[in-house]
Design a protein that fits this description.
The structure is a single chain. The protein has a single domain, classed as HybD-like (Rossmann fold). Strands 3-1-4-6-5 form a 5-stranded mixed β-sheet, with helices on both faces. The chain has a two-stranded antiparallel sheet with strand order 2-7. The radius of gyration is 21 Å and the shape is globular. Helix content is 27%, strand content 18%.
């Protein structure tokens, strides 16, 4: 059988990147038999249909709103997986992946076994942010859950302390955290400083009692 370990999510929105960070750890510290693929699905959506169709056993890592305490891990299996992927729309990728599973099923090629390893996020509204500590601490436990599941199919992984460089530099979490601009340089949340720069006219010109939509260039001039 073919096995696919798939992480989905968006690295740019804090805990939304959990699934991708799990894949980073797997790629750098674990070695699997040749029938096991380890893939960063990111936010590729429908582009993931083909690898999903090729998998007999699919393990998904993602940030899911289960309504639990931040950092809580929960596993969902088989037919219940699509329901939880669509439980609450956190980002565009979740709806997209729910569609991936539905499309694969309609096309007649669908994994026989599914496992979702989900973490309850602590923070999502932090553009450019990394995983919060409560979520970051669950990377290895999530991997252990997946490895225990694979053991049921006779699949074992070899753990190594040696560090492989990620295939994509964006998968290096330490670099991502180290090179992120500070709050004084880059807005992370809604930032009042944007409205205090004088580049925005709070009340556009009027004509016949109606507001006109007038474009403003980057210097705040009409």
């Amino acid at each position: 059988m073919n096995y696919l370990l798939l992480g989905i999510g968006n690295l740019l929105w804090a805990d939304e990147g959990f699934g991708v960070r799990v894949i980073e750890r797997l790629q750098r510290h674990y070695r699997f038999p040749k029938q096991v693929a380890v893939m960063d699905g990111g936010t590729q959506g429908l582009n993931l249909i083909e690898p999903v169709q090729q998998a007999d056993v699919l393990v998904i890592f993602d940030a899911i709103d289960f309504g639990l305490a931040p950092g809580s891990l929960k596993t969902i299996i088989n037919g219940d997986v699509p329901c939880f992927l669509g439980a609450k729309k956190m980002s565009l990728h979740q709806t997209g992946f729910q569609e991936v599973l539905a499309t694969a099923q309609l096309l007649g090629a669908y994994p026989s076994h599914l496992l979702l390893v989900g973490v309850q996020p602590e923070e999502l509204e932090d553009y450019g942010g990394s995983l919060r500590n409560s979520v970051k601490a669950q990377i290895e436990p999530a991997i252990e859950m997946a490895l225990a599941y694979l053991q049921g199919f006779g699949i074992s992984a070899e753990h190594t302390e040696s560090i492989e460089e990620p295939t994509d530099p964006a998968l290096d979490m330490l670099r991502y955290e180290r090179e992120r601009p500070g709050q004084e340089q880059a807005c992370r949340l809604g930032d009042e400083r944007v409205l205090q720069t004088g580049r925005f006219n709070p009340r556009p010109p009027q004509a016949d009692g109606l507001f006109l939509s007038v474009p403003v260039d980057y210097r705040g001039q009409y």
